[in-house]
Write a structure and sequence with these properties.
By secondary structure, the protein is α+β, with helices and mostly antiparallel strands. It is built from 3 helices and 4 strands, in the order H-E-E-H-E-H-E. Helix 1 runs parallel beside helix 3 (79-88).
């Protein structure tokens, strides 16, 4: 699921998110990681996912996912800030846990034989 900006073009944030996922996958491949898991920071206070006062949002806000109170678990509606955090900042920032590819897992066969 990709969430865009509510105060700008939706696709700006979705594009940054996709770029980040590509960076993450490259980082995993380059370092032999087979699994990545977010590490929940217990000091984070759950916050509503959207900061809207519209009735249709408020009536369903309890059904939305939650976000944290600070980065990287908080969605800031700020494109410039997101460029730095999603395009430039290190992938291994302590918010994710990486595990190596298991030796017991055989590599996938190519879909098309050469």
């Amino acid at each position: 699921m990709s969430i865009g900006y509510s105060n700008a073009s939706w696709t700006l944030k979705c594009d940054l998110t996709c770029e980040y996922i590509c960076r993450l996958l490259i980082q995993m491949e380059d370092n032999g990681y087979g699994k990545v898991t977010p590490v929940r920071d217990p000091s984070q206070e759950p916050q509503p996912f959207l900061d809207f006062s519209s009735g249709y949002v408020l009536r369903a806000i309890d059904k939305f996912p939650k976000q944290g109170s600070t980065a990287p678990w908080r969605l800031y509606q700020n494109y410039a800030r997101d460029i730095v955090s999603l395009r430039v900042a290190p992938i291994e920032d302590g918010a994710l846990s990486f595990e190596p590819v298991s030796a017991s897992v055989a590599p996938a066969e190519p879909a098309i034989a050469a």
